[in-house]
Amino acid sequence: MLIDTHSHIYLEEFDKDRLEVVENAKNSGVGTIVLPNIDSESIPKMKQVVKSDSGYFKMALGLHPTSVKQNFKSELQSVFADFDPTDFVAIGEVGIDLYWDKTYFSEQQYVFDFQIELSKKHGLPLIIHSRNSFDEIIDVLKPHVASGIKGVFHCFPGNLAQAKQVIDYGFYIGIGGVLTYKNSNMPEVVQGVPLERILLETDSPYLSPIPKRGKRNEPAYLKYIADKIAEFTQTDFEKVASITTKNAKTLFGL
Ligand SMILES: [Zn+2]
Q1: Across the chain, which distance is largest between two alpha carbons, in Å?
Q2: pTM for this structure?
């Protein structure tokens, strides 16, 4: 069994064939899918999907850095308005994104820090989005590390030295389709860190792995990522599946 620790299957990209996509995922050995939230607008869509198959999906609640704008305080309030921590397995996705827009960098820092506090308060792990912002993320995280925060750097964007730092901080490395791309430095990362610190994810509908690159990504394609990890670490698919599944269960309390 595999666990897709990051999918946005509630987005409109799946409105036409979501049931089929879920069937494909199940038939491909995906036993659980974790859904990270984006902002206040995505919450009803996410909950709707979970309602359809509540044993199969797990939710994370958070405000994504690319949705942090001038109204960030009221947006934070809306996202966490009826927050019942027992409904969620993580706070996410949260973090800093300096790739799309740097305008709200200080607001992104504030919102990230606010959500780290929530993760501490409720004992929920963090799902961290870090695009063009590794050092900035570390700066915000650092003061909290001693209090035992945990989580995953989703779609890990760094090099091996940064991966080791993340592990030192008690976090997991989220590995997705990028591992299968030419010129990716993810092979070096997966070879240099213990399998015990790796989580599998698709980030569907984005970042399809080869041989599906360029198409819409879906949880069923998680097997291509597990295959590549097995290849790069010279082990077998079953071992990658069982260890990464155990990691996901440990982190998210599944
Ligand atoms: Zn995401």
Answers
A1: 49
A2: 0.97
